[in-house]
């Protein structure tokens, strides 16, 4: 018996926990993916089971994680607890989660990190701890048991100390993100224990600490991304006695601040990192006019950087920026250069001629005009250039643009899209080997023989083209999306075409002559273009189904009734709210169900109309005007009566016309906050019998005194006296 009782109690407890879980977070019940985010929870709901693999409790108000909270969730792969108020975690809270791969504790209130939390998380790959309130990582490493960790996010505005040994146990990371905006102490060698980091992002402002970190990362990081740093760098060498080869290949500055002096110093120091191949600056600010220390830069030797990317560089008074004379020796090994969204309006010809190895140049979204382009691409400039992007500039002449680019002997890829050319000449001069040309969104009204015949790829999308009749024997890809074409381009003039895009045009059909026997491999057409009749039929069927659905919904929720009532109410609203006293002919209009007519006509009418003095009652059977719309009869009778008397019963609330009469009295009587309505309760009515749309009747019955028809004769006499008094008031 005791065993049975114990089993019963366990089952009851489990059932109770499951019910609690279902109540706290309905999506978790019997589900692998449990989403309880943004539900205002201040605790981890009980009843979590081994079925769950993902538990999302983000954006709640949880303050503590206790030992028993996750005890049954042994198969969790992801646990999301970010943006709560967690300040306390029991040491063995995560012990059952040996299969956990993602743990997000970011943006909470953790004042310290304990190694015991992560001791049993042998499968953990992604750990997010940023945005808490801890100031350091402790004296030792909290991550020593996380052998499979791939990405680690940590730090916060109060994070100030990194110590040696803090990262012991971690050998390889795909991504390391550190918010060290207020980092004030870094013990040399702290990050050296990590053997390999593919991508490290650090938010740091102290340039001296940045230098120390770089020295520790020379042999481990492939890509280092630094945000919010304010140079100057210290003049001390970044590599010191470090042994080559180094591993760092890419360095990115985001939202950094440079001056002419500090950028000169940075160029000199970064040359020491011989493995560095790519430099990137995004959303940075340069305060200066280009007065760089070019002599010191030149003395420091050749740069090993091959790719430079500058996006959204802010230079105050950029039009006063110097021509960087003296930098010629530093750019002749550069292979890829991007300067986008940075107000570039020209490159001096002499400087351009020294980009002798440059293969790729991207000047998109700048301020280049044709006059300045003529100097930027002067004779002998950019001798090795193969790809040029001049999109989103202020070029106006296609003929002049083509002539400038013809000075680039090796150019084969040109993007001049999103320039407002407007016109296209009949003849243009282009580079001899041009293979790819992008003229999309350039407002050209037609295509002419200005288009070079050497092209293999041509994009003239988003223009105003009405036809395409060019002889392009080598063309393989043609993009005509978003034009005004009514017919396909002929197949004969472009015999080697492999890909054709004609979306968003005005094509009505295709003919065999358009293809002239050429085999079409893959065609990507919209459903409307391929099966117009079928699409029209489907639309008609869909419209019919929508109408049918609306009719069904209207029937279920009495929409027709509401429309009829609204129309009647609008008519009633045009009339005066009260009839003039001379037009009031009745003491009361009586609203009742036909099923209650025996009591009304044989009992109440006899008692009131034979009283002394007699009361004048308006009854629909007797006093409605024949041939008049019944709704108008109801409205007029209510307006011409001093009172409206409702005989309430279960029959009443089920009667359609009683509903109308009651609703009109809502509009005309109850909304005026007067006592024109008298309620007689002929029999008890359950509140659930009253239709929901008569919310005012429910309210009136709860707040307004009504007369209840009694069973005894003595009480009936008192009832009549009270009713007569109410009619006279």
From TrEMBL:
One of its GO terms (molecular function) is transmembrane signaling receptor activity. The chain crosses the membrane at residues 534-555. SMART domains: LRR_BAC (SM00364), LRR_TYP (SM00369), TIR (SM00255). Residues 1-20 form the signal peptide. It is found in: Membrane. It is a single-pass type I membrane protein. Disulfide bonds join 28-34, 349-378, 428-450. Residues 584-727 form the TIR domain. Keywords: Disulfide bond, Glycoprotein, Immunity, Inflammatory response, Innate immunity, Leucine-rich repeat, Membrane, Receptor, Repeat, Signal, Transmembrane, Transmembrane helix. One of its GO terms (cellular component) is receptor complex. Its main location: membrane. Belongs to the Toll-like receptor family. This is TLR21 protein. It comes from Toxostoma redivivum.
């Amino acid at each position: 018996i005791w065993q049975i009782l114990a089993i019963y109690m366990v089952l009851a407890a489990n059932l109770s926990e499951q019910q609690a879980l279902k109540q706290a977070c309905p999506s978790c019940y019997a589900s692998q993916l449990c989403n309880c985010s943004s539900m205002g929870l201040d605790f981890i709901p009980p009843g979590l089971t081994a079925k769950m693999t993902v538990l999302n409790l983000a954006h709640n108000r949880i303050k503590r994680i206790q030992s028993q909270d996750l005890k049954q969730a042994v198969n969790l792969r992801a646990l999301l607890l970010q943006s709560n108020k967690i300040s306390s975690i029991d040491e063995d809270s995560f012990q059952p989660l040996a299969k956990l791969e993602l743990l997000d504790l970011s943006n909470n209130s953790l004042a310290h990190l304990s190694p015991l939390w992560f001791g049993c998380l042998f499968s953990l790959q992604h750990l997010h701890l940023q945005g808490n309130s801890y100031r350091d990582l402790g004296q030792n490493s909290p991550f020593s048991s996380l052998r499979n960790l791939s990405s680690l996010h940590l730090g916060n505005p109060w994070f100030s100390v990194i110590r040696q040994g803090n990262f012991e146990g971690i050998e390889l990371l795909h991504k390391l993100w550190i918010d060290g905006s207020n980092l004030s102490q870094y013990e040399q060698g702290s990050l050296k224990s990590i053997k390999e980091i593919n991508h490290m992002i650090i938010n740091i402002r102290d340039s001296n600490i940045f230098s120390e970190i770089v020295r520790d990362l020379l042999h481990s990081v492939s890509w280092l991304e630094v945000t919010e740093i304010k140079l100057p760098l210290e003049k001390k060498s970044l590599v010191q006695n470090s042994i080559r080869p180094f591993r760092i290949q890419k360095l990115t500055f985001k939202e950094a601040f440079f001056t002419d002096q500090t950028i000169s110093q940075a160029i000199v120091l970064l040359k020491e990192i011989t493995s560095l191949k790519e430099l990137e600056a995004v959303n940075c600010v340069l305060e200066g006019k280009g007065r760089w220390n070019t002599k010191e830069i030149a003395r420091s030797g050749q740069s090993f950087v091959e790719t430079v990317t500058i996006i959204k560089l802010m230079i105050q008074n950029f039009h006063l920026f110097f021509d960087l004379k003296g930098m010629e020796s530093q750019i002749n090994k550069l292979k890829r250069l991007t300067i986008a969204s940075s107000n570039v309006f020209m490159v001096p010809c002499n400087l351009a001629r020294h980009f002798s190895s440059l293969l790729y140049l991207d000047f998109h979204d700048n301020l280049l005009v044709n006059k300045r382009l003529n100097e930027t691409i002067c004779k002998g400039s950019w001798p090795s250039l193969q790809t040029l992007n001049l999109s989103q500039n202020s070029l106006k002449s296609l003929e002049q643009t083509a002539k400038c680019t013809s000075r680039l002997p090796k150019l084969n890829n040109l993007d001049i899209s999103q320039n407002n050319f407007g016109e296209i000449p009949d003849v243009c001069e282009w580079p001899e080997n041009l293979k790819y040309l992008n003229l999309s969104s350039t407002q050209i009204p037609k295509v002419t023989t200005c288009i070079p015949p050497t092209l293999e790829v041509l994009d003239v999308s988003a223009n105003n083209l009405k036809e395409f009749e060019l002889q392009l024997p080598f063309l393989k890809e043609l993009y005509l999306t978003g034009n005004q074409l009514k017919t396909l381009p002929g197949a004969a003039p472009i015999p080697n075409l492999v890909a054709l895009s004609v979306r968003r045009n005005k094509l009505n059909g295709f003919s065999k002559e358009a293809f002239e026997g050429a085999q079409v491999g893959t065609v990507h057409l919209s459903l409307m273009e391929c099966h117009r009749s079928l699409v029209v039929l489907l639309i008609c069927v869909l419209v019919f189904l929508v109408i049918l659905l609306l009719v069904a919904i209207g029937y279920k929720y009495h929409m027709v009734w509401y429309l009829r009532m609204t129309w009647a109410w609008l008519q009633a609203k045009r009339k005066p709210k009260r009839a003039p006293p001379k037009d009031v002919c009745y003491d009361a209009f009586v609203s009742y169900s036909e099923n209650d007519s025996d009591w009304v006509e044989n009992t109440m009418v006899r008692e009131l109309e034979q009283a002394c003095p007699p009361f004048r009652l308006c009854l629909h059977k007797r006093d409605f005007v024949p041939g008049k719309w019944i709704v108008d009869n109801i409205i007029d009778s209510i307006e011409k009566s001093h009172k409206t008397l409702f005989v309430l019963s279960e029959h009443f609330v089920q009667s359609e016309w009683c509903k109308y009469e009651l609703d009109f009295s809502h509009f005309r009587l109850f909304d005026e906050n007067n006592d024109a309505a008298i309620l007689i309760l002929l029999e008890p009515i359950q509140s659930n019998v009253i239709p929901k749309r008569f919310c005012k009747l429910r309210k009136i019955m709860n707040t307004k005194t009504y007369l209840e028809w009694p069973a005894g004769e003595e009480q009936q006499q008192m009832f009549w006296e009270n009713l007569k008094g109410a009619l006279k008031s």
